Amino acid sequence: YIPGETLFGFPYDWRQTNSLDATLERLAETLKRISKGRKIDVVSHSMGGLVMRSFLAKYPDLFKQYIRSWMTLGTPAGGAPKSLFA
Question: Is the separation of the CB atoms in 85 and 57 below 8 Å?
């Protein structure tokens, strides 16, 4: 993988909600720019997986248009209930 050519990051403000409209709209623009008309593979980690899940919920047609596959690693999809006791 070549950073900026075949491998891209998507920074976001992790202190904000996962479904912040500005973040999801910027993600849509980023996917459009980097896909160059082809479907892409997305790997998300931790809260990035929640951002992608919010994107899928808000823009299902764009998700289908740009995403070939999506893998999420360490995403608290069921929440993190044990953190209440930490």
Answer: no
